[in-house]
Every structure is written in C-alpha cells, then in structure tokens.
Design brief:
One of its GO terms (cellular component) is plasma membrane. The chain crosses the membrane at residues 27-47, 59-79. This is GlsB/YeaQ/YmgE family stress response membrane protein. It comes from Uruburuella suis. By secondary structure, the protein is mainly α. It has three helices and no strands. It has helices at residues 2-20, 29-49, 59-80. The longest helix is centred in the C-terminal third of the chain and has 22 residues, at 59-80.
C-alpha cells in the first residue's frame, strides 16, 4: 500500500510543479509522476536532515513541490541543449 500512496503523492506533486514552472513542458504521465516522486524523496531527505520538519508534516508537501520545480527546471535545461 505504501508504494501506491507514493505514486499518487508523486503524481500530485509533479502536476503542481508543472503548473508552477513557467514554459511548456512536454512530460507525460510517467515522467510527471517520476518528477514528483524525485522531488518528494529529495525534499524528505534534505528537509529531515536539515531538521526543517518531521515526516508527515504539511511542510513536506511544500518542500516536495519546490524541489520538484527545481528538478523540472534542471531537466528542461538539460533536455533543450
């Protein structure tokens, strides 16, 4: 059940990141989900290591979305070149 929740949360975070990132992003369903999962994992690791928040707090959603936008910005810059 944990993997299903992770995929759903990753998709939601990925969609939020695509909405917040300016420009056209030609990412499909799978890439959007992977983007969100990557942002959530990176935000969880950095946020908890830096003691910004505990697991399960709402700040994790915000950090996950921010990190997903950063990953998306890096991804679009690398792919365009």
């Amino acid at each position: 059940m944990g993997w299903i929740v992770t995929i759903i949360v990753g998709f939601i975070v990925g969609v939020l990141a695509k909405l917040l990132h300016p420009g056209k992003d030609d990412l499909g369903f799978i890439m959007t989900t992977l983007l969100g999962i990557g942002g959530a994992l990176l935000a969880g690791w950095v946020g908890q290591a830096a003691d910004w928040y505990e697991a399960g707090q709402p700040a994790g959603w915000i950090a996950s979305t921010i990190f997903a936008v950063i990953i998306l910005a890096i991804y679009t810059r690398v792919i365009k070149k």
